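As the work plan foresaw, our protein records have gained a structure token line. A representative record is set out beneath this paragraph:
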Amino acid sequence: MGHRRLIFWAAIGLAASTAARAETTSQAGLDAFSRSLDGPHRIVNGRLAAFTWDIEVAFGSQANGAEPETSRLTLVRCGDGEFACTLAQGASSRLTLLRTASAAALIDHVGRRVFLGEGPTPQGPDALAFDAFTQRLAAAHGDLSAATEIIRGAADSRVMALQMIGMLKLVEQPSANGSVILRSSEAVNGRQFTITVDTQAGAIASIAWASDTGPGRVVYRLDGEARLPDLPGDAFETIRVDRVELERTLMRGAVRACEIAYRLDHPRPLVDRRRKDGSGLLVIRKARRIAMLAGTPREIGAQHGKLLAREVSRTVDSLLYANCLHESLRRGSWVLDECRKAWAAQSPQIAAEYKDEMAALAKAADVSLDEVQLVNTWPAMRRGTSFAMSGPASRGGKLLHGRVLDCLTGLDVQDTATLMLIRKQGAQPLVSVGYAGLIGCLDGMNGRKLAVSGGAGDGSGLWDSEPTPLVVRRLLERCSSADEALAALKAAPRTAQVRYLISDGNAMRAETVATSPEGVNVTGLGQPSSNPGGNGVVAHGDHLAPLLDGIRKNHRWFDEARTQALMGYPVATQDDNLHNILFLPADLVIVVSTACGRKDACAQPYFRYEFAQLLREAELVELMP
């Protein structure tokens, strides 16, 4: 059935439902409900130029003496160019976004600081105009998007009232105090609503709901008067930021944060498909992305950017803009400036071929080169645990290389997870577990049976060396053995403390490598270390104690299934386990699980990929139409 025909029949169904439901409401009740929706209808449709709208939302009940969680949002609009938005969550957080003709500001009332951008009003898609900002916020959140579409689609508040009565299955209830009470006759998407209308004020007194996750209640007040708050005085620390950058960060960061809040509970569905670009191919199989990229650095970057353009934009908005807002408020400094310092320090150490790949990626994905460079120097993906087992520790002496990565699930980075097969001219083919927009490798394996994981360590602010993910990729592209990888690490500039795990399926060996400005420390299988897990084991990371305890309990018996179980809790961090990987280098096999929404990687199914099979599929791309 065509798209337009579906819309036609949906409209007919909605009209029939609305007509039937209208009979459950008296004429007086319908008139009062319609009048109460006039203000919200005019605001959403841009027909109210100036207003103050106070909205209070409470979740939970006062049962057993517990206080409900309360948030308060205040919107003040003085035309499209000037507005303020204040969000308060109890006493712990109160933020104000303020925009006037001469300045934009993010005010942290609890931290007593203001990020201030002064100058002419910016123009363009990322400028913080009221209508564009609120529309993009609503579109980013599934529930808000559905509600605003209903409001915009209604010709007036009476039509809107009829639509709400039909969709929420509202039935008028008896009332003794003159108010109008409308209640859902049955649950709608797991919620039963009660709307109370104050007939004297001509406004909604409250919207309440009950659900399996607990009750909630919304109370709001709408005023035709509008007065913007003043910028804080000298009692607040002022952090000056370029106004264009501040507005872009507020627009894209806040919109992405709103989308993340929805997507963590409603992960984006992926439909199996194939899409080709030159020698590149994007395959979605069993709701998992596989990008097969080939050619020169510029060709690989262009394929990456074109095949994953939307995902690249989401990665940028998550890691740069949403995270910048969070980290800037936490640290009291503008984090994008720190990222630029990192890029300036690292750039001389980054090979020209990787810079060319970034430039092509940015152009193809329609994001700025500055954004791609900064997101590829982001130092956050370090937490986790890595280990390798062989000889007496594993069944049959099989070499097992495991990685548990714990970070950034709250930013929904998992939304862009992609297995990447990279076949660059003049380099060894490799497979990497990565994320759209990031050209480095957090964990990978090449066709010479060499697997490398990198990133755990310390050294924030010590940036005068190549970013760790690019180091891992360089090792995989240029090295054929653990000896060659170790030699390359020893020869490279080192300013930070970084730990790597290297395993070699040909030599059946593995080493943890700790690099620092002072030198390189190598611990191999069977060598003593500060955290021995028994003979045939090397490991490093954040959760060594439970890891090594689990290894001791099943020593000599580890296979794929037992190793996957080992990478669960408490080795993985609950609510922050981004991905788990098991390399079998000797067999050229990689087994992967990735977080999905709020579900950690260790709670997701594992998918097994054979390097040779991926290569065969990639080599057929040229024959595809």
In short: The first strand starts at residue 50 and ends at 59. DSSP finds 17 helices and 28 strands in the chain. The chain has a mean pLDDT of 89.
